[in-house]
Model the fold of this input.
Amino acid sequence: MEENTENAIYYIKKSFELKNLKLYKEAIEHLYKALSSEDLPQGKNNEIVAQIGDLYMLLKNYERAIEQYEKVLEDDPTHIHSMHRLCEIYFILQNYSKALEIAQNLCKKSQSAENYANYFRVLFKLNLFDEIADLYKGLSEEFATNDEIMYIVSKTEPENKFELLEKIISIKPNHMQAKLDLGILCYEKGDIEYAKKLFDEVTNAEENPKAYYYSGLIYNLQNEHTKAIDCFLKAIKFDKKNVNNYYFELAKAYCDINWLNEAQIALLRSLSILSDSTPYADSIDEHYFLLAWIYSKKNDIKNAILNLNIIEKNSHVFNKAQVLKNMLLAKEGDIIEAKANLEKLYETNKDNPMIYSALGEIYKELKLYKKAIDIFKEGLNAFPSSFSFLSEIVDILIDDKNYDEALKYADDFIKTYPNCPSAHNSLARIYYRQKDYKKALEELLSLVKLDKNNAEAFYFTGLIFNDIAKPEDAVKNLTVALNLNPTKAKYYAQTSRAYSLLGSSQDAMLFIKEAIELAPEELSYKKQAAMIADESGNKEEADFYKNLVKSSENVAKMKRKD
Done:
């Protein structure tokens, strides 16, 4: 007798060991052996059958698990564990009506926060929001302040959602889903700073793709595009399923820093996902429009037009597409016709920010600076949150040599967008034109702290160091610029200038040759090469480049005559 009892207990203990090793099938076999033991301790039968059900659940064999739990409940209708498990299984199988029946029964037999939370979850899945409200009103304070119950209720009561989510966080500060939902709610209401704080708390605690995504949107709003890119890339990394919006916003952020190849890749990825999931959606036209814009920036007019022609007439981006078409018309040389068309479109499209940008660009091209400034000011009044109009006003005032007014707008720019690299770049340009090199360098230092991958900032810094006869510092910064973007001819030319100042003619010639290779039409680079060759005493090379300069000047004269 004693031996049999010990045998049954042995099988039960062994099954727990096997379960801990995730050997679930073997654990089940040992429990069946325990059940067949003649002298199993009294009252253990139902517990062992329920444990067998748990093991079948772990194996995702829900049919066999249900059989075990129902067997227990036939013998003991009050067996809470089996009822819990059945409710959980039916929830997983999306048989919510059956899960609801069990959840209601559970709450009648055993009132607990866990049981009510299950009840609320099932009601939510069945969209029985009125029932949720009625049930919640009748709860005791103990259950009504349970964080899981409040969270489910928050998803059904939009008018009380903010208060409920804040209460959840005050009770359970590590409830990250509540923080995420509250952050999204604040973002939608325009409370950006509080939303950002909440998203930061979530991402500091866990790799949450949705929190990264919304953080990216906020960084884009604040014109901190490199930070936005980092967030979107993390969102994509940690969520492989819902990546379409992530790729689209990533593409827009890349466009904002003029990384057009990267933007195109991200956009095409987004478009392929969207096209696979829906035969047509208005958002597809947004993708085609942005793709056309990227092609326009790359001067690929043909592909830009092809993408614009795909856009449906009833699309909300159709008018923007017409504006971009006329901008492309101007690029092809029909600037007067483009101007006339855009001025007509302006009369009926004043709610379209792109019309202000397009007309402003046309006026700039025609050197109608006053008209350009006026149209950008109108754009700024119509869309005060758009930093691009403020940036354009500053740039035109600089081009028009109106530095005092440019400085006034640039100060507004930096106050409104203290973490925007463009604002610091605008101030640097003004100070440079005013020959205040110290302040210009300070602004560029602030810029690279915000955007360490900004090649143009390092180039500009190198140029200033050359101007103030600090070629060693110039070389350091220009080397960084070239590492970040080795395709810019002017970077090589400025590096050549730095080596000339250092007295290293060989290096200077090496870099100016690279500049000429990248921009053979640029006359100044050929003159620079001739001067370097002269200074180094290489008469043959100096004559070669002088002849090249003459030849280029003759070609330019012929073109002017034509």
